[in-house]
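Hey L., structure's done. Input below.
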Amino acid sequence: MKFIDENKISEELVNSFNEEMTLELANRLEDDNYSTPFDGLKDWHLLRALAINRPELTSDYIHLLDQEPFDEN
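Output:
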């Protein structure tokens, strides 16, 4: 499976995702068993890009993005 090339998420990559691939991505994020924190961050950014550009694929996994509002003060 093709993932992030040089830490960039391309339109082609986002458009190549289907429900099965999105489920695999969500499962990895749920398991949170990455070799480095950066690997998890890459998946998180990919899920975020999918949520923005292909929301129909991510509606069941939006909780993984933790987009709670917060007060900066």
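The CA atoms of residues 25 and 43 lie 7 Å apart. The radius of gyration is 12 Å.

-- N.
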